[in-house]
Write a structure and sequence with these properties.
The complex is a heterodimer of chains A (129) and B (596). With 129 residues, chain A is an alpha/beta fold. Chain A is 40% helix and 19% strand. In chain A, strand 3, helix 3 and strand 4 form a beta-alpha-beta unit. Chain A is globular and about 30 Å long. The termini of chain A are close together. In chain A, 36% of the residues are buried. Chain B is α+β, with helices and mostly antiparallel strands and 596 residues long. Chain B folds into four domains: 207 residues, no CATH class; 103 residues, Beta-Lactamase, CATH 3.30.450; 71 residues; 153 residues, Histidine kinase-like ATPase, C-terminal domain (Heat Shock Protein 90, 2-Layer Sandwich). Helices cover 61% and strands 14% of the residues of chain B. The chains are: A alpha/beta (129), B alpha+beta (596).
Chain lengths: 129, 596
């Protein structure tokens, strides 16, 4: 378990409504600092600049989907070590297993509960060495 | 003639047996005895007549009393021989007792011969010359006449003739007359000659009887063989008709079949095609006949097909479900599913290969579209629901500040119904996955008690809404199962939420765990609900199953949950059911195999 508590979250999501709900959930319920990125094509730079504790990626996004962005993050020295949690509404069990094998910290299914989301993330954070 | 009534055992092995050997000795003996007895009336009548004549002729002279006594003896002997004949005729087992009857006949013949030997010994010396000549003549007739009567068994003739001739020879030899003494010397030679003739005749008779039996047996065999051949001919004819009818039917099936049928030789050359194949690939039969089947396979699939073909030729086993992309004559390629069957003859050689194919291009496209639709539906419905339910949860949780009581009531209703809609989507997607066989489980060894405890914790919030308490019954035993964790939690959630929904306020839903039959462990969820109506019990695990539609509206739920639970439990190797609880309520349970 990391020494510092989970505080800085970067969330890449194209749907503005969900962006807003997640931001409110993490800020209001979880008391965390949140950076939301709507365009996956500029996400790498924004993540590198924000220096989050954890990155949340949506699965389906226009231009570049979550798994592809995750692979790109793995090739970037500034982002490759960051823990990643996928938020998905459609991935099959097999695809989720594949992501875990690739190094994803976990997955959270849509629709998630904004009341429970901070706790779910903290539980995943606690599994890190 | 008495025919044999039983047939001796015959070997079915095709040994080469001579006609003489093939006759059963028991039957041959029985036939000889029958022949002897059939001549007995003539012999008895003849002997009796000669005896009466002799008595009459010899009455003049001395020893009239002895002559009369001898006549009486002849009568007595005649009666005894008639009795013997009568007994033989009434015998029920002449074949089995043939040897016994032969012995009795021998004794009778010896007695008859000895009677005449006695007459010769007593009356020859005591009577006048004419009577002596008469007696000698009678004895000659009797000895000579005995040959045809007893020739079937020479030993019988031998004892019969000995009975007559030996006393007579003795009398002649001791008479004191030189001529008689010379005759006495000739008589044994005469006896031997006669016995020799009888011996020869016996052999001829034996041979004849054997031949007759062998012939009878041959006739019997021949007739049985003929019958079998006729039967086989009838069967062959029937089989030929059936084969012809099957051939016509098969040709008709192939001709009218909507499935493409190709006949290939073992080298993979096309021999014949049916109209459906012409239609499918757009080639007339003349362009396909004699061509390699690779003409109908795209080059990139050729290597895969060649490997499958080699396996088919080697194993002589049909290939099924072989999907290949096949080019049509117009250049368009289609995907066909093939069943390829080798036809093997009795020597194990492949004589032809039948390939049956159907165009599954549209089917695959439909499956792809369905999958895409399901996936899109899943995403496009869940994404707005995430916003709806999420927003409502944030409002209802109070983190955004206090809101008006009426507004809160309405947003709570909206959240609950949003959740219902989500449950319905999830259940419909699960059912779709289960029915299309696309649901994959990820079983792992689990401590069932931990999973049950987790499910209780997860569902307490839901149960609180119904003012129902969830609890484990005592300490749950530490039992391991091999199951999909997420799906098992889904099953527990389903059973617990049902129990909470249908129990009255203030009730407790108890979860029990106990060993079950066949090494299973049973988890039971006891509710205090109204019980399962009788008319609903048989379809409770069916889809869209709810006892009363008014309940659905009142309690929520899609009616798919138990159907999904049943399928999931069965996929994990377990079973699911329910039972009434004494004193009201129902226990829903599932069983899973325990792991060591």
């Amino acid at each position: 378990m990391p020494a510092q508590p989970l505080n800085r979250i970067c969330y890449v999501e194209d749907d503005e409504d969900i962006q807003r709900i997640v931001r409110m959930s993490l800020e209001k319920v979880g008391k965390m600092t949140v950076e939301v990125v709507g365009d996956p094509l500029v996400a790498i730079e924004r993540i590198a600049a924000f220096k989050p504790d954890l990155v949340m990626l949506d699965w389906m996004m226009p231009g570049m989907d979550g798994p592809e962005l995750f692979k790109k993050m793995k090739t970037n020295p500034d982002t490759k070590a960051l823990p990643v949690v996928f938020i998905t509404a459609k991935a099959s069990q097999r695809e989720l297993e594949e992501l875990r094998r690739m190094g994803a910290l976990g997955t959270i299914s849509k629709p998630f509960s904004p009341r429970d989301l901070p706790e779910q993330l903290r539980a995943l954070w606690a599994t890190l060495p | 003639m008495n025919s044999p009534t039983t047939t001796p055992n015959r070997s079915s092995a095709p040994e080469k047996i001579s006609l003489r050997q093939s006759a059963d000795p028991r039957f041959v003996l029985a036939d000889r005895v029958e022949q002897l007895y059939s001549q007995m009336p003539v012999a008895v009548a003849g002997t009796f007549a000669i005896g009466v004549l002799a008595t009459y002729e010899l009455r003049e002279g001395r020893y009239i009393e002895i002559v009369l006594a001898w006549g009486g003896l002849v009568v007595l002997l005649t009666l005894m021989r008639i009795a013997l004949y009568w007994s033989y005729r009434r015998s029920k087992d002449r074949i089995g007792e043939a040897a016994q009857w032969l012995r009795w006949l021998g004794i009778s013949a010896f007695a008859a011969g000895s009677t005449w030997g006695f007459a010769a010994a007593v009356f020859f010396p005591s009577h006048a010359d004419e009577q002596q000549v008469f007696l000698a003549f009678l004895l000659s007739v009797l000895v000579g006449g005995g040959i045809p009567i007893y020739a079937v068994s020479w030993p019988i003739y031998a004892v019969y003739a000995a009975g007559i001739l030996f006393p007579f020879t003795y009398v002649l030899a001791t008479f004191g007359n030189k001529l008689f003494a010379e005759i006495a010397l000739i008589i044994p030679a005469f006896y031997v000659l006669n016995v020799g003739i009888a011996f020869g005749l016996t052999r001829v008779y034996n041979s004849g009887y054997r031949l007759r039996h062998a012939y009878g047996k041959l006739t019997e065999d021949y007739s049985a063989l003929n019958q079998r051949l006729e039967q086989q001919l009838v069967e062959l004819d029937e089989a030929r008709r059936q084969v012809e009818a099957s051939g016509r039917k098969l040709a008709l099936f192939a001709e009218r079949s909507p499935i493409a049928v190709l006949e290939l030789d073992p080298a993979g050359r096309i021999q014949q095609v049916n109209p459906a194949a012409e239609l499918l690939f757009g080639y007339p039969p003349s362009e396909l006949a004699g061509q390699a089947v690779s003409k109908l396979i795209l080059p990139q699939y050729q290597a895969d097909f060649d490997a499958q073909w080699r396996s088919l030729i080697m194993n002589r086993e049909p290939l099924t479900g072989l999907k290949l992309r096949n080019p049509r004559r117009d250049g368009i390629s289609i995907v066909c599913e093939w069943t390829v069957t080798p036809l093997v003859n009795a020597a194990g050689e492949i004589v032809a290969i039948i390939a049956q194919g159907r165009d599954v291009t549209q089917q695959l496209e439909a499956e792809r579209m369905k999958k895409e639709f399901t996936s899109t539906l899943s995403h496009e419905l869940r994404t707005p629901l995430t916003s709806i339910i999420g927003s409502l949860q944030l409002i209802n949780s109070g983190v955004l500040g206090d809101i008006d009581k009426d507004v809160l009531e309405l947003t709570t209703i909206a959240e609950r119904n949003g959740q219902r809609l989500l449950d319905l989507i999830n259940d419909v997607l699960d059912v779709e996955k289960i029915e299309s066989g696309k649901l994959t489980l990820f079983p792992e060894p689990l401590l069932l008690s931990e999973l049950v405890a987790e499910s209780l914790a997860l569902n307490r919030g839901f149960a609180d809404r119904y003012k129902v308490r969830l609890a484990a019954s005592g300490e749950l035993p530490l039992v391991k199962v091999n199951a999909d964790r997420k799906r098992l939690l889904q099953i527990m959630t389903n059973l617990l939420s049902n129990a909470a929904k249908f129990s009255p306020e203030g009730a407790t839903v108890l979860v029990t765990m106990q060993p079950a039959a066949d090494g299973n462990v049973r988890v039971g969820v006891d509710d205090s609900g109204p019980g399962i109506p009788e008319n609903f019990r048989s379809r409770i695990f069916g889809r869209f199953a709810q006892a009363d539609m008014s309940y659905t509206r009142q309690k929520g739920g899609t009616g798919l949950g138990l159907a999904i639970c049943k399928r999931l439990i069965e996929m994990m190797g377990g079973k699911i059911g329910f039972s009434d609880r004494g004193g009201g309520g129902t226990t829903f349970w599932f069983e899973l195999p325990q792991q060591p």
